[in-house]
Request: fold
Amino acid sequence: MRKRFNTAGPCRDDIHYLINPLSRLPETQSLIDSQQYFAIYGPRQSGKTTCLYALMGMLNREATYTALTIDVQVAADCPDEAAAMHRIANAIYHQAKLYLHRPEHPPEPDDPAHSFTTLQDYLSRWAKTNRKPLVLFFDEIDSLGTHLLLPFLRQLRTGFEARPKKFPHSIVLVGLRDIQEYQFTEAHISPSEQEEMLPGVETPFNICSKSLRIKWFNLNQVGLLLEQHSEETGQVFNEDIQYHLYQLTNGQPWLINALANILVELSRVNSADPPLYHEIDLNMVKQAKIELLQHNAIHLENLFKKLKEPKFKLIIEAILTGGIPDFNHFRDALNYAYSFGIVTRHTPITFSTPIYQYAFIISMSEPFQWVLPPALTESMQFVRDGNLDPDQLLTAFQQFYYRHGTQWLSQCPFQQAGCYLLLFAFLLRTLGEQAEFNWHTAMGVGYCSMHVEFVGQTHLFCMKLSRDQYAREEGLIQLREQLKQHQLNRAYLLLFDVSHQNRVYREEIIEDNKHMILFGM
Reply:
């Protein structure tokens, strides 16, 4: 069977191209050797489970430890602590039967001769009878609700001091979020636990020595992954293509694999074995990006669903508008959005990849796109001699926004970013696949800019909310910086007046042969 780029489930080295998983978590061996309990975390489909199985396999081959990976989401729907811990014990037993030699199997949970009262008791019995120290990887801990996660953590903490002879030598907790960032209310935590906790720490799992975030691929690793396909098929991803894919994805593993899969299919000449391929070029990469966004991939759809959650929406809207968030909820909201890999956690805070940025803007503006009047979005009325006429385009939007903006925005779930999304919807519907869009958004910068490539020409639009008398001058300063940075001679500033006064105007300013056109909305 030929290998392929994997976009579903853990990678297997016999059927998938993959980067050595162990190279992505180099610290784990020393932490395990020193009997540490620690955490590994990272967004979904970034390779966590693949790494866990690779670590388990390596440790078992070396024969120093008995290592096992367990998915605890089998207990997520349990009604109470006892049922959940029993189900986790059953998961441990059945995984051991699949991956461990018989002498290393734990007691059978349902055997009356090995009855146990708690998960701590079960793990203790296994550790006492096993001939090698135990190393356990508990995957998907986020799936356990607070009423199950807290007792699970408490039992691990209680047994911690008895390691390695009477409790597992090392335990690794794996999920979306850093276990040390979980916040529990005082109602969840006993007085004795609160006394033990360090100031500012709101988790009772204070035996976690370190938290490791699984890193995305760097440019070199992207090249190594793609070159595996080249070695197998002879099809080359040249350095320009490798770099462009890295720029689009920032090395996010699922995105890299998904785009590579689409490119392989787009470039296939025939269905022979082995098939022939066209050379991959940048136009194919653009087409692959469009296809990825149109496929309604579960990976992206699951992220879009998060927009219904207030703390997720708080971060995304602030990024799109360049505004400031509600600081009362900012830290937890940022950590939450970051745990899904959507945003950066360094300044300026923005989308983690251009693909995610494009995908979220399309998704958030999609309802507007569906219902915009066809007469408004007929692209040819804005094209003269094959070139886009931005003035006419923006004038048409300005008139529509003046007439219908208030009503349309009142129905938008994203009140802070609604006016921008309506503009984006208009441009996406009007220009469609004839244009290429590149947005520049970041929290706190005070504006959002967009480059539109149309028939070889670049058009720069800068959007800003006009909240006070300083907005116009601030916007012009920001527009000048954009003109200088991108070496353009013409750009547009769209000022959306939140007070709905002095809304409709057009003004042109010429400085050093640079044209700055202001549209009041």
